[in-house]
Amino acid sequence: MPPAARTSVLSAVSDESPRRTEDSPDTLRARVLLVDDVPANLLALEGILEPLGQHVVSVRSGDEALKALLLDEYACVLMDVQMPGLDGLETARLVRTRERTRHLPILFITALSRETAYVTRGYEYGAVDYLLKPVDPDILRAKVSVFVELYLRGEKLRQQALELAERRRVEEELQRAAELEQQLLGIVGHDIRTPLAAILTTANVQLTREALPESQRKAFERVARGGERIHRIVDQLLDFTRARVGGGIPVVPGAGDLNELCRRLVDELRAARPERSIQCDFAHDSLPGVWDLDRLAQVVANLLDNALKYSPHDTPVRLRTYEQGADCVFLEVQNAGAPIPAHVLPTLFQPFRRGDGPGQRESLGLGLYIARSIVEAHGGTLRVESTPESGTVFSLCLPRQALADTRAHSACAGVAAPMTA
Questions:
Q1: CB within 8 A of 124, min separation 6: which ones?
Q2: How far apart are CA 17 and CA 20, in angstroms?
Q3: Cα torsion for 398, 402, 404, 406, to the nearest 10°?
Q4: For residue 246, which phi and psi values (nearest 5 degrees)?
Q5: CATH of the domain spanning 254-399
Q6: Which of 97, 191, 212, 279 has the highest local Cβ count within 10 Å?
Q7: Shortest CA distance to 237 belongs to which of 367, 108, 381, 132?
Q8: Where in the chain are the domains?
Q9: pTM of structure
């Protein structure tokens, strides 16, 4: 047990914190106030209380005691009854008049032969107990230790209550901020779609006119491209809102062929980017299953688009599909080039994370987050591996039939797909 800290009898204020010990900042320690006009008595009391390991503050008058109680909190007070000037009884009465110290335990120390008459008055003034001089050390320590323990328990409960209140306040603020964020995204997404549809319709109608001057045609083409880009951004924002607020992106599974979907998407990309090579490797001509093919088209298109963006123009992007057992199908998209930095990998699928490649200022950084959300809505998994030797490989595992309840056990859970060499 550490020795009790001692404050000079000439000072009513402790220089130490009453809350924590120096050796262990997480250990609470209480203050005990000693009031006696005789220095020898104070030294004796300090010696008796030293084994308790609490912080003892000694003062030599009622005035100094009141000053100490104004500045600090105490577990209890040991007060001599008969003192010159402001005696112990009057000091106790003044202590009880203050709201902060109204319930502070006061133990009077009295000499029975001369001060028995003070005992009754002492209880009237708020004393919780009294001790006879000469004081029995064991009894004194036992009584003080009870009040110290009660004080420390109260302090712990008070600290826990403050921490709980602060935690609740922070959680409520975060919840309000999240709700406002999602509501704002949803409102903005829906409110933008109406005028955007009018803009795109106007631009497309004008582009169908054969007599349209070339300068106006180029202008309407720019309007159409910009409108389509805004449309994609709005769709991403709405999907993000659904994923964060609605408990996940909704999927409507139906029978379909994953390979046929991949062929269609690859043909579209080849037509849009004829300078790039996209190679397909299908283990089977068809890969049937029950999925939301429109949503999976978002996933595959995003993976292929990213692979084209982040790979050298003279290298191919490879798409591979195969099955593993009767219940799992896999799709991999691989590209060459510099690997994804190690510090980026842990946050790659988080929302609003953008890459460092060209044109990424135009991206919201939601593509991979939405892709993983769609895959998880099917009960599948989406992983990435990136090394200098193999390049970057995104591996998608899907149960043959999308799960109606994603909390159910998925065939893809714990399955590690072999990465493309």
A1: none
A2: 6
A3: 10
A4: -85, 10
A5: 3.30.565.10
A6: 212
A7: 367
A8: 5-135, 177-245, 254-399
A9: 0.51
Residue with tokens 């924002």: 237
In the sheet that 129-132 helps form, which strands lie side by side, from edge to edge?
5-7, 55-59, 31-35, 76-80, 106-110, 129-132
Q: Is the peptide bond before 358 cis (omega within 30 degrees of 0)?
A: no
Is the CB of residue 115 less than 8 Å from the CB of residue 122? no
Q: Which of 354, 365, 318 is nearest to 337 (CA)?
A: 318
Q: For 61-120, write each residue's pLDDT tens digit.
A: 999 999 999 999 999 999 998 889 898 889 998 998 898 898 899 998 887 555 556 666
H or E segment and range at residue 392 = strand 391-399
For Cα atoms 357, 231, 306, give the angle at the middle one, nearest 5 degrees.
25
Q: Give CA–CA dist 322/403, Å, rounded.
A: 20
Question: Is there a contact between 65 and 77 (Cβ–Cβ < 8 Å)?
Answer: yes
**Residues 277-308: tens digit of each pLDDT:** 999 999 999 999 999 999 999 999 999 999 99
Residue whose structure tokens are 């999240």: 178
Q: What are phi and psi of 185, to 5 degrees?
A: -65, -45
User: Percentage of the chain with pLDDT > 70?
Assistant: 81
SS3 247: coil
Q: Which fold has domain 177-245?
A: Helix Hairpins (1.10.287)
All residues at 6 or more sequence positions from 401 whose CB lies less than 8 Å from its CB, including other chains = 253, 289, 290
Are 261 and 297 in contact by the 8 Å Cβ rule? The answer is yes
